[in-house]
Amino acid sequence: MTDKILTDDEKDALLDGMASGEIEVQSHGGTRYAEVKPFEIGARSRIITNSYPRLQQLNLQLAGRLRKLTEQLINAETSISPGAIDTCTFGEFCERAPDFSLVVEFSAKPLTGSALVYMESAVVGYIVESFYGGSGDESSRAETDPFTPGEKSVASLFASDLLQTLSEVWESIIKLEPEKISLKDSSHIIDCIDSGDTVISTAFTVRLADQDRAFHIVWPLSMIASLVPVFDGQKRERDAVEDARWQHALRSRVPESIVNISSRVGRTRLTLREVASLTPGQIINIDDPRDGVVFVDQVPVLKGRFGVHDGRYAIEATDWLDGHGHHNRTAHRQ
Fold it and tell me: Cβ(303)–Cβ(293) under 8 Å?
């Protein structure tokens, strides 16, 4: 029996023959000589990837905080870690998703629309068994059995912890109000997202009973489109015209700001012993009170001569200070 696998030399000879036209190729139109045509990959054929670095950081925080809540829920050591982030259509995600999962639909105001949490059957079984005191690795449920009301109830507790943690972690970029809408088997019709809609799927790996299982958070792109630039780590370009407008507005309002004015007239030096021995009615001698300093919100701004003007105590400004009490320039007005 001859070997049907081509050797490297046979492959090279075949390619050379096709390129030169020396090999005949049979087609419905009869025998013809093969030829090699150049092929250029078009723009639509190129694969575009996006790692969403900011979203990866959020997922890392989410996994760490959710692990602690899950351990408290099931009273068992658990490991949760973030996985890959994938951008695809919802139909493509469903083709790759586990055959049977518990699907949690939730909203997240102020975002519009619904997102999904896909929990593998094994994850649900482990959480339920551990919740009721089992070891988690002895779950008797078959992966194709419909989820019972009791299983959905316990899984709903896990989903609540997940959504609470999601709200806390995402608070750095947006204040969300996640709320469960429904729990259903993946075999049911999911009508909140069309199969052709683009989604961002974030995977999480749960280490349970020495086995890795997964759950996914599926976000419709239309729901979080406004946050994609943040997930990309992109910084918004500054608008020079907008900055100039705000600068002008702020400058125009500064002169009308109300500030506290105070003054210091005269000064002297005492030892701590002398200060401690002061009694009511005792007189403290100070230096020449004719020199005074004007403070704006405790910052020295003016130096002047102390005196009386129109029957009131006043300070005639003589020098501007630089904010540290040093001379800056001569004042020309009182």
Answer: yes
Mark 185-211 as b/e (b = at least 16 C-beta within 10 Å). Answer: ebeeebebbeeeeebbbbbbbbebbee
Q: Give me the mean pLDDT over the 97-120 stretch.
A: 90
Retrieve residue 260's tokens.
């506290």
Report the alpha-carbon distance of residue 92 to residue 112 in Å, rounded. Answer: 23
What DSSP line would sit under 115-132, residue for residue? EEEEEEHHHHHHHHHHHT
Are 199 and 224 spatial neighbours (Cβ–Cβ below 8 Å)? no
- What are the tens digits of pLDDT across the range 274-283? 888 888 888 8
The string of pLDDT tens digits covering residues 204-246 is 998 876 778 889 999 999 999 888 888 876 555 556 776 777 7
Q: What dihedral do alpha carbons 280, 281, 284, 290 form, nearest 10°?
A: 120
- Chain position carrying tokens 């105001």: 109
Indicate the CATH number of 53-232 among 3.40.1550.10, 1.10.3720.10, 1.10.10.10, 3.40.50.300. Answer: 3.40.1550.10
Give the separation between CA 80 and CA 77, rounded to whole angstroms.
Answer: 10
Q: Residue 294: name the closest of 267, 324, 317, 327 by CA.
A: 317
Tens-digit pLDDT profile for residues 135-173: 655 455 556 668 888 889 999 999 999 999 999 999 989
